Amino acid sequence: MEFRRIEYFLVLADKLNYAKAAKELCISSQALTKQINILEDELGTKLFHRTTRSVQLTEDGEMCKNQFANLKAQYDATVSAVENAIKSKNKVVRMSFFAPLPKNELMNPLIHALSEEFEDIDFEITTDNMDGLRDKLKNGDLDLVFTNAHDFEDWRGCETIAFKTTPAQVIVSAKHPWVKEGKTSITKEDLRNGDILLLIKHGPYEFNSFYAKVKTQSRTLVPNFDSMMIELEKGRKFGVFPMVFNDMQHSGFICFDLPEEYRFNYRTMCGFKKANQNPYARKVFQYIKKHQKEFSF
């Protein structure tokens, strides 16, 4: 009995719809029907009552659903344990940076120091969007992340090290009407009449965040920070973030403080999931924690 047929059966038992189950499994309905028929022949029983209008589990189907679900859970746990054991043996630490972080002040010194201190560890280094980093860390897809995080973000279940805390500011280009009007400060009314740029998130913005509370005329979603910079250059929209990005001091953008009731901070930080079972990742995190001041800027 092939395990993939058990996986096919479990998806169909959940969907009770051949077309929907086949779509999730990325196979045709005909192929799914064939595999289910083979499984029923192997077990010597019918697993589904199928009519032109509905698909229902038989009594034996219900029993198999419960038993096979337990088997699938054990299989997934075993595969995960094997993968973690191999990663641990190979001394791999998966790190990712929010791409716009300061390269000369943070990224390069950090990577250089870790490479010298841990010559036997293979560092897999990538870059990502700010939101994607937190999700991947919590999901166990990364061991360490380096990012700018709002001070209201949910990092529960993680340990963090802050290298720098910076107030968020309203950022516009020199072409923006606020600059042309000679404004020296920005009010709630200005924000209400403006168009804010927001990075696309995998989930909703935190309910207590500035981004959820601020009132603006419109909101423009962009896929990444580079796209946000391009939109800012056009001079019609504004962004809200800290001026701690690579080469921002030479960017020509104009900064305004947020109105008092909207002010918040960003932390340039390292994050590590407490439940992470990779001993080398924890060792690296402890080293960064011990040498935190050396990487502050």
Q: How would you summarize the topology of this molecule?
A:
Layout: H1 3-15, H2 18-25, H3 29-43, E1 48-50, E2 55-57, H4 59-90, E3 92-98, H5 103-117, E4 122-128, H6 130-138, E5 144-150, E6 158-167, E7 169-172, H7 177-180, H8 188-192, E8 195-199, H9 210-213, E9 218-222, H10 225-233, E10 239-241, E11 254-257, E12 265-273, H11 279-290, H12 292-295
Parallel strand pairs: 3-4, 3-5, 8-9
Antiparallel strand pairs: 1-2, 5-12, 6-12, 7-10, 7-11
Helix pairs in contact: 1-2, 1-3, 1-4, 2-3
Number of strand segments: 12
Tell me the helix content: 40-55%
Low-confidence residue ranges: none
The name of the CATH topology of the largest domain is D-Maltodextrin-Binding Protein, domain 2
Strand order of the largest sheet: 4-3-5-12-6
* Terminal residue distance: 59 Å
Query: Major β-sheet, in short?
Result: 5 strands, mixed
Radius of gyration: 26 Å
Number of domains: 3
Based on helices, strands and strand pairing, what is the structural class?
alpha/beta
| Average predicted confidence as pLDDT | 90
Helix segment count?
Answer: 12
CATH class of the largest domain: Alpha Beta
What is the approximate shape?
Answer: flat
CATH superfamily of the largest domain: Periplasmic binding protein-like II
Oligomer: single chain
